[in-house]
Amino acid sequence: MATAVHELEQIAERIYNQLNSGKIPEMSIPTRSKNNIIFDEKSKVWKYGKANTTRTAKKLDGAYMLLRTLYLLDFIREMSKQQKSSTLRELYYISEAWEMGKFHAQDESNKLIEDLEIVTHFQREDFKIRPEDDGAKVLGDVTLTEINRKGKPMRINCRNDVGDTGYNIPYNVEDNKITFNEFGDSKCIIAIETGGMFDRLVENGFDETHNAILVHIKGQPARSTRRFLQRMHKASGLPLLLFTDADPWSYRIYGSVAYGAIKTAHISHILATPSARYLGVTPSDIVNYDLPSDELTDKDISALKSIQSDPRFKGKYWRGEIELQLEINKKSEQQALAKYGLDFVTNTYLPEKLKEMNILP
Asked: Which CATH class is domain 137-356?
């Protein structure tokens, strides 16, 4: 954290020097708008463009933001000295003591933390700022070493050394916290959208019968989950597969894991896994397996049409699936596979899919 704090101190020093020389203080950051976010075809992730925004004390709003920035820099430095951490929510309430520098909504404090990430090229975890929600769950034959809160390494097998709920991914998943050691006979990593489906695969022993590492990503996955998936994929060389519902919001979950999200474009290179593949459920599955389904809502249709122009989904596969879904006007959940019994998903559906993808013989 010392290096991260040093970068923050440099920001404060620049503002101080501007004031000391009689200049109106200002701070420049990349413009955070859709117009300045591009999809890099080479790296297959979202990135910021070259446009910058200057926050200056010439305007009252800019002056307030610079004041909040300085309070925040001091708060992070003090945390570093005390070896403490803070949640994003705690940070928002702590600002109540900053008088004119307090935040009026948590969205303001969240965005300022993201601004500091962009300017310093560090992550909020380097500033000891953590999210409120807990991490995702992992169950499978992967052995890792985690540095515990006492600073000592713990070797953990995510199948044999955990309970039914699996290993809980911490908010910090960098190599100073987690090291991947072994992957046994694992053949793939399956990231699963819903807790119900994760529990079904765990109860049916799919991790053992088909040598899969199962990860419950809890809907739209947290940053730590996406980073963990990327690191595990790179360390193991195993294919990363996304198993979600068949609706536009779930396809966007896949897009965020594979190619990054607009909101986190500044760290797409450490969060996104462009080689990730979509496992299902698909519109074709709704037809081929005659799955129970619901009609698309107006919002669903609008989202699907938006996906048609999304560069992350421009391939022939996605074009065909989205067109089919609009044609049949249906969406379906993972749990709809239970129509054929509780074992169907693990005995038939997933094995067939994995064979089609040449992951299983």
From this structure: alpha beta
